[in-house]
Structure formats: structure tokens, C-alpha cells
Design a protein that fits this description.
The protein is α+β, with helices and mostly antiparallel strands. 28% of the residues lie in helices and 24% in strands. It has four helices and 14 strands.
């Protein structure tokens, strides 16, 4: 079931989204060569505590997971695409880091992700990150009243495929509201004009996940959470929580 939000509820979700934006901003500030992903998680916990918010990630246990998620953010490095558990291994010069963060505030959720390089960036990583951001912006631009879910999927997929990148198979965006994951699913590739019609009050987490090697396949780490590219190529993740409104898409997790 898709839950339609009132304008007041969308405003409340915006406040949760601000906390998510603050977490990602802080994680980007802290990240550097020699810093560990666990230190990024510690910084995120401080932001949540100061805002009076909690994390929808911490202790989350979907059906596929062998154990509850142990952190408040996901930190995926290099060939890790998504769901990386923050480790104690220091970041190295040139690492590509994706951070996915969520927040629950006054009963409403926000969800967003960014990717960046620590130290000196490889040109190919800069292009990959820029394309993920472009795909996200294209998806957001298609998130207008009267369009369909397939229009968002097509917009994202076109940017990704035209650049020669793979798209994480079986994963995409989702509805969001009182919980982090709600209906509908938002694929990262699809046919325009297909799927559910977008209405004022729908709120979606739109999140392209690009694989540099051009393949769509992934493998699970031993931790049961982290998804990695099968060919060892790097990956980039970009995400925003977006409200569909009569005035156009409203990005609720923008800084």
C-alpha cells in the first residue's frame, strides 16, 4: 500500500531529511586518509544524538540478513556497492567511499546517500561519481505529478547505460514515510509510461547505484550485508528522499 502524505507531514519529513543531510555532511568532513569507517559512524551517532533523532539502520534486520545491522550508517568502499558495515580498516589514498544514512525524527524517516573520494581521486572515479549524481538528478526531474514510476526508472537507467555503467541488479529506490521502506519500489531502469501514476503526497527515496565495470551482477560479503561487484570494479551510490508535489519534486534530504 502506498501512503499519501499531507503537506504538513511532508514538512515533518523535511525535518528528518535535514538530519540526514547533516549526517552526510559531517561524514564527508571527517573522512580522510587514515580515518576508519567506524569513526564516520561515531560522527553520525553524534549528529543523531544532538538532533534528538534515531537511526532506522541500527538493528535493522530484513529477511536476507543473517544479523541485525550494527551501525547507524552504511559505509561502502571501492568495490562495495551498498550496505557496507563500518569497519576499523583505515581509509587509503584514492579510496572511493559511499555513505548511506537515515534518520527517524518525530515518527518520520529520511534516507540519503553520497559518494566521494578520500585523498587524490582517480579520473575514472570522478566520472563515476558525477554520473551517479547526474542519474539521481534525472530521476528527480522525472518525479512529477502525472508521470509514472517507469519515467523515473527510465531517466535513471538512460544516464547510467549511456555512460557504459552497470546497474545493481534487483535493487533500487522505494517509498518512505513512517518507516524507511514503504511501497512502491522505484527501479533504476525501466520503460517510460509504465507503472504507478505519481500523485501529490507520494514520497520516494530515489537511489541509483552504478557499477563501473558495466556488469549488473554482485556478490555478498561473508558478513551477509555488504554487496560487492563481481568483477572488482568500483561503485557509486547517490540518493535523496523526494516528495512528489503539485509544485514539482521537493528534495527533503537536501542540505
Amino acid at each position: 500500500m502506498v501512503h499519501i502524505k499531507t503537506n504538513t507531514q511532508i514538512d515533518a519529513m523535511r525535518e528528518a531529511g535535514r538530519v540526514v543531510a547533516q549526517i552526510l555532511t559531517r561524514a564527508r568532513e571527517v573522512a580522510a586518509v587514515g580515518v576508519t569507517p567506524r569513526q564516520l559512524d561515531e560522527a553520525a551517532r553524534e549528529v543523531l544524538s544532538k538532533a534528538g533523532a534515531t537511526s532506522p539502520f541500527l538493528n535493522y534486520k530484513p529477511h536476507f540478513a543473517p544479523t541485525p545491522f550494527p551501525a547507524v550508517i552504511c559505509v561502502s568502499v571501492n568495490d562495495a556497492v551498498v550496505h557496507g558495515i563500518p569497519s576499523a580498516e583505515p581509509l587509503r589514498d584514492g579510496d572511493l567511499v559511499s555513505v548511506d544514512a537515515g534518520a527517524l525524527l518525530d515518527g518520520w524517516a529520511g534516507d540519503s546517500a553520497i559518494s566521494f573520494t578520500v585523498g587524490e581521486a582517480r579520473p575514472e572515479d570522478t566520472r563515476l561519481i558525477a554520473t551517479a549524481n547526474e542519474a539521481l538528478e534525472s530521476g528527480i526531474a522525472a518525479a512529477v505529478v502525472g508521470n509514472r514510476i517507469g519515467d523515473i526508472a527510465h531517466a535513471i537507467g538512460t544516464v547510467c547505460r549511456d555512460a557504459g555503467y552497470g546497474i545493481l541488479e534487483g535493487y533500487g529506490g522505494h517509498g518512505i514515510g513512517r518507516s524507511m521502506h514503504e511501497d512502491p519500489s522505484v527501479p533504476n531502469e525501466g520503460r517510460p509510461g509504465r507503472g504507478m501514476v505519481l500523485r501529490h503526497g507520494m514520497v520516494l527515496a530515489i537511489e541509483p547505484m552504478l557499477l563501473a565495470g558495466g556488469l549488473d551482477e554482485f556478490r555478498h560479503d561473508r558478513d551477509g550485508w555488504t554487496l560487492r561487484t563481481t568483477d572488482g570494479s568500483r561503485a557509486s551510490h547517490a540518493e535523496h528522499t523526494v516528495a512528489i508535489t503539485n509544485e514539482g519534486p521537493r528534495v527533503l534530504t537536501a542540505l
